[in-house]
Amino acid sequence: MPAEQGPASEPPRPGDGPNRDATLRGPSFSKKRWTRKGDRGERATALKTDPRFADFVANRGDALLRYAYLLAGDPHDAADLVQEALLKLRTSWEKVRMKDNPEGYARATIAHLHLAAHRLRRRERPSWDLPEAAYHDVPESGPDDPLWLALADLPRKQRAVLVLRYYEQLTDAEIASVLGISRGTVRSQASRALDKLRSVLPAADRSIP
Amino acid sequence: MTDLEDALRQTLTRAVPYAPRTSEALVTHVETRYRARRRARRALAVTVAAVVAATGATAVVVQNRTEPSGLTAERGAPSARASDHPPPLEEVWPQAVTRVPTHLPDGRRYRPVELLDDRTMLILSWDSDGRYALHTYDLDTRTARQLTPVAGQSPENLTTGEEHVAWWVIDGDRAAVWAAPLAGGAARKVTAFRGVPDRLAIARGKVYLSVTGGGLFAAPLTGGAAEPVSRAGQASLLDYPWVGTAARGFTDLLNLETGERDRAVVRTGETDVVCDSAYCVLSREGRWFVRRRDGSQERPMNQSALIQAPGMGRDVPFAGRVQVAMSATAGYSLIDLATGEAGDFGIRPGADGMLVIVGLVASGGLVSYELGVERVVIDLESIP
């Protein structure tokens, strides 16, 4: 595993090393916020911080961004999630560090922020709003892949369960712990999510027409 | 693990390189926000204390201590030093780099598919209603000529061969394979297929497609049923006529036309070996290397590589020689592993300290990405 991607003790995650069996194809884009990240050429400034926190961000920041990106499906949302999670981690750094699991804390925070953002957005929407006009929102960046596009249509909790199960390779008990839900809910959310994906993808029974 | 679960795992893995990355500015940004928030809370505490005192209660004076001035920013952090970035792409390979607008003249968005010749790209465009079309794009005149509209949802595995382009789309509960002539003309449905294709190739008048989990089928380019290619067994298409087992990193290949078998050199202690028809990537003693299938021309790989070509067949030509790399201090760059030359993409951290690459394409003889209102196109064939 590349050294920048974490301590040697951590098991490899899909995508951590060279892109084994990955087919990189062109990403697609939308107009959504495409100007937000540009070539601003800013000169960075350095504040003294707890060097252990700085080391944690340097070593695990990219892994957290990958995780957040798979949860959110959007690079800008992923960047926002990680930044907010790191801010919370920085605030609780001494306490979390003593427990020796800052990454677990950060991952759980990212998942909670992601699900909470959804709830907030739902609450903010007045019930008398007319449905928005259909707009084909091609993801700004990501694999040009029908499953990736179908994942975007899943409720966030269902998507989170799939990401934790099939990318992070967590057990249902671990997923329940990270998301703060029961194991039964994990199983039902995963089952519903897979059913939805099956319904939008070609049947994979390989029979010939 | 079902086919769907396998496909899901692959899709998530494929998405990983599109995630944003950190820069060295991220820690500074988090620290700045953390201190600002702490200052605001302390200021609030002072206000509350003052209110309590004013109401006659016993109050403890809380001093609002501002942050020591010694924590002011140190300018010129490592991430900002110009010397950390290689020279711009245009300085290193001026003949290979072209900048074009991110939109077509009629306002449609697009992404490159393949370089058909040194000045013409095959591109896929779409409008805000999700209607797709294929065009050729002239890099000199910056104009597009539509080849054909694309029916259905997002076309997948766009592949050229024998003067045609083929792709597949979801069609109800099937995958429909389509093809269109590159010279222009209507697209036609080649076949419909129950399964999720993972690779296509056009060769010898047929469209070959392998499906997720293994298994190869072929249908006439002119249209007809997809028939299993029995001599391929459960192998997956790598780069026609080569097939192999994806789960074993394509180390053992079979040439469908000649029956030739090719076994990549794998030495004791080498793990995670993944090959394409020319090169392999492997891990040894915690480091990554790339070399030819026969074990020659081994080179260490950039440890922070974003894209490694082997294992992707035709998707990334110059396999094993050129890679897109990223580091927290030098950002994104293109590296020629053969010569060590590197060209800077020009992407810098946003105000939040994150590095986001937009619209990355690394296939069909090119590497391309968006930079503001421009799309940078690098013709890999023009890198000497």
Q: Describe the sheet with the most strands of chain B.
A: 4 strands, antiparallel
CATH fold label of chain B: Methylamine Dehydrogenase, Chain H
Report helical residue fraction of chain A.
40-55%
CATH architecture of chain B: 7 Propeller
Average pLDDT number of chain B: 80
What share of the residues of chain B lie within helices? 10-25%
Strand content of chain A: under 5%
Transmembrane segments (chain B): 43-62
Region (Disordered) (chain B): 65-89
Keywords (chain B): Membrane, Transmembrane, Transmembrane helix
What does this structure look like?
The complex is a heterodimer of chains A (209) and B (384). With 209 residues, chain A is mainly α. In chain A, 53% of the residues lie in helices and 1% in strands. Chain B is mainly beta and 384 residues long. Chain B has a four-stranded antiparallel sheet with strand order 3-30-29-28, with no helix packed on it. Chain B has a four-stranded antiparallel sheet with strand order 4-5-6-7, with no helix packed on it. In chain B, strands 8-9-10-11 form a four-stranded antiparallel sheet, with no helix packed on it. Chain B starts with a helix and ends in a 5-residue tail after the last strand. The interface between A and B is large, with 92 and 124 residues.
